[in-house]
Amino acid sequence: MGVEIRVHVFFPLLAFVFFGISAADGWPRGLALFLLLVIAVVTREAARLMMAAWLGLRLRAVLLLPIGGLFAYANPESQEKANQGAGQFALALAGPLANWATALMLTATILGASSEVRLLDAPLITSAHLLRGMVWMQAGLGLLHLLPAYPLDCGRLIRNSFARKHGYAPAGRAAAGLGQILALAAMLGGMLLHDPWLVLAGFFIMIGAQIEDQGVFFQSVVDTVRMREVMLTDFATLSPSDTLADALFRCVHSLQEDFPVVRGPQLVGIVSRQRIVDALRNEGNGYIQSVMSRAFQVARPEDTLGATIRRLTAGHGLALIPVTESGRVVGIVSVQNLMSSMSLLAEQRRIERQESAD
Q: What CATH architecture is 227-357?
């Protein structure tokens, strides 16, 4: 569906934990039990992806954890739609309903094939009885998301409700904090009850809450930074009438990877250093206007960095956004210089706070 699938490093490493839990039954059964968890997660996320496509949401990536996936949206409109109205409930229900429907179909199939399988015997999930574990792995993952712990589905609905009154940044931090508290309680409860599944669930809820918390913190920071604070004001431009050979000479004496192309004061395109080199190699000398990209977006000095980052990642895949004022290019922001500018800005603000305190 055009969505990048990422797997958290702890997910495949969890297989070794399953080997330890299933030591008495042998590692092949431990591996089989781990694969049942993978199937349950894939079932859940496939349903959520189809629901997102049906709602018209654009996703950039999905990070897979043993408790499910975390969505990264391609634009703010999709994120708002997923967190408001009927869309949030549709996404919250898609995963659990898919797991429960799968569990019911498996139950009907297993009981129809043999009435001797005891699906209600304890322990419900064990490598010694993989058929029973297959049913309860699906049902258990769906039930897990009824807990009010962010980033689980029920916790996400609570966060969205809180955000309507207090804003998404405070709501996100509060929900992530509550999720971590509930995760810690689950881990401690699992240790006291000698229940490894409760410990694992709490551990990965904790990781998911921390990932979401970091995302909320980053968003709250970049939404307070204006473009004028991080844009490069000392930059080179090219003209559409420049030859590729002349442009290459300019590239040699510049640290820029991408260049605004201007005709007088007007921005007419963007060209990268690599595009110039490739055109010279393959087509010989020509003019910049023949290789420049006319698909670009611009920012204003008063725009927030958060909005600019969303343009960089969700627009046309460009690595450069010109900053314009009254139609004139006054600065540029690129992925290449952004981290350096943010680091220097943070240091500048720290010094200013110290001076104001003194």
A: Roll (3.10)
User: Residue 238's beta-bridge partner residues?
Assistant: 261
Chain mean position to CA 259: 29
| pLDDT for residue 326 is more than 90 | no
Q: List every span in the chain annotated with CATH 3.10.580.10.
A: 227-357
E runs forming strands in the chain: 4-7, 59-65, 68-73, 258-263, 266-272, 320-325, 328-334
Structure tokens given for 350:
């720290």
CB environment 141-179: b (16+ within 10 A), e (fewer):
bbebbebbbbbbbbbbbbbbebbeeeebbebbbbbbebb
* Mean per-residue pLDDT, 246-269: 89
- Reply yes or no on whether the pLDDT at 1 is more than 70: no
Which two tokens mark 219? 């968003």
The torsion of the CA quartet 341, 345, 351, 354, rounded to 10 degrees, works out to -160
Matching residue, tokens 């200013």: 352
pLDDT tens digits for 11-30?
999 999 899 888 888 889 99
- The closest alpha carbon to 127, from 8, 285, 56, 21, belongs to 21
Which pair of structure tokens corresponds to residue 69? 């996936």
